[in-house]
């Protein structure tokens, strides 16, 4: 399995818009991608400008399917307008 953690910095005045856009992406991903085992957004309790998208995929094919999805492609430009900088994407191999 493959795990991905995407880290986002969002200005406080854009948090509501970010959460709405990301929420649509989470809902579409979970409803339409059987190779995705976990896809959820979390906000840091100590710093409300910090968010993490936690993702778990069966395999690389599931990651590729997600990246090629219409909802993922549509979210990119929308998210760009509410982020403070580029997201940090980390990919891991699940070992246990």
Automatic annotation (TrEMBL):
Domain ABM: residue ranges: 2-92
Enzyme Commission numbers on file: 1.-.-.-
Q: What are the alphabetically sorted keywords of the record?
A: Monooxygenase, Oxidoreductase
* Source organism, top-level taxon: Bacteria
Q: Say if the entry is tagged with keyword Zinc-finger.
A: no
Q: Does the keyword Oxidoreductase apply?
A: yes
Task: Report the GO molecular function annotations.
Answer: monooxygenase activity
**InterPro entries in the record:** ABM_dom (IPR007138), AI-2_Isomerase_LsrG (IPR050744), Dimeric_a/b-barrel (IPR011008)
Q: What is this protein called?
A: Quinol monooxygenase
Species the sequence originates in: Sphingomonas immobilis
């Amino acid at each position: 399995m493959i795990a991905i953690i995407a880290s986002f910095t969002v200005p406080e005045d854009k948090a509501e818009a970010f959460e709405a856009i990301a929420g649509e992406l989470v809902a579409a991903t979970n409803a339409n991608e059987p190779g995705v085992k976990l896809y959820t957004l979390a906000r840091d309790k100590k710093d409300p400008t910090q968010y993490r998208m936690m993702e778990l995929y069966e395999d690389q094919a599931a990651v590729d399917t997600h990246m090629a999805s219409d909802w993922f492609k549509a979210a990119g430009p929308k998210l760009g307008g509410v982020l403070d900088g580029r997201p940090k994407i980390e990919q891991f191999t699940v070992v246990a």
